[in-house]
Amino acid sequence: MERDEALSLLKTDNQSNEFYKLISLSNQQSRKQFGDKGLVFAQIGMNAEPCSKNCRFCSMGSSHYSVEERWQKGTDEIIPEVQQLLSEGMNDFFLMTTADYPIKKFIEISTEVRKHLPGQVRFVANIGDFDLETAKEFKAIGITGAYHIKRFREGIDTLINPEIREKTIENIINAGLELYYCIEPVGPEHSYDEILDLIYFAKQFPIDAMAVMRRIAVPGTPMFSRGQINAMELTKIVAVTNLIIKPTRSMNVHEPTQMSLLAGVNQLYAEVGANPRDTSSDTKDGRGFTPTMAWQMLAEAGYFPETN
Ligand code: SF4
To answer: Which residue has its alpha carbon closest to ligand 1 atom 2?
Structure first.
């Protein structure tokens, strides 16, 4: 799709017939690509601590830390949580840390966690930036992919140089890890041109699992007062992203929103532990979905787990 056409799709009036045509087009693409196969990915945030990267939308930014507690989880806590997630059904498992978390410790814990994941469950790192050697080490211990993105106004609303984010993405791909990507965190102040810049940046990479996430207005964060886009706007951005990227395995909306499944979203996230969008230190008691909740939402849209 040419950029001009994509821009006009993003400018579609959310109350118009064209809006529903756009949603339908995206849905048709997904149904053709994914059939009725739904996927649930689950993530454990393994530390709740102030983070020096100080993203202005994150509850764990060091200048405005808004999470109710501070802690790190060890394998004694993580493994029972993994087992609970597996019992409810998950396809891919993510371990997340803040950007300052020591890589060596992440590798030690991940090595142990991998032993408790069935072979078919993909294992994904969602951590700070890392070099090629580290990416290769991840692969060697059974990590299959990494969630890493260049976010909106990276280096302005965060303290991370966007080039460092890009280098890490390159390292992920060069190490043979799967790249999980997302357009995030979308807020009301982002123009359609900015949104397209990020979508077309993503388009250069091989992406099987794609996502769009709206920024949550977290109380206590500097960006709280900017508010959030509504679910219709989010659904439209999901549809345009899906049509441009054409992910081969899954399309996601985050946080889960039933409406967006009309646009061909077949994958949702369940979350446990720390969460940059939550002030509850265990998001499963706050904003986070359980796998059961995610499967129910998928079933409402006619997406089901693959049966062998
Ligand atoms: S979003 Fe990530 S990098 Fe940014 S402050 Fe939060 S934990 Fe740190």
So the answer is: 98
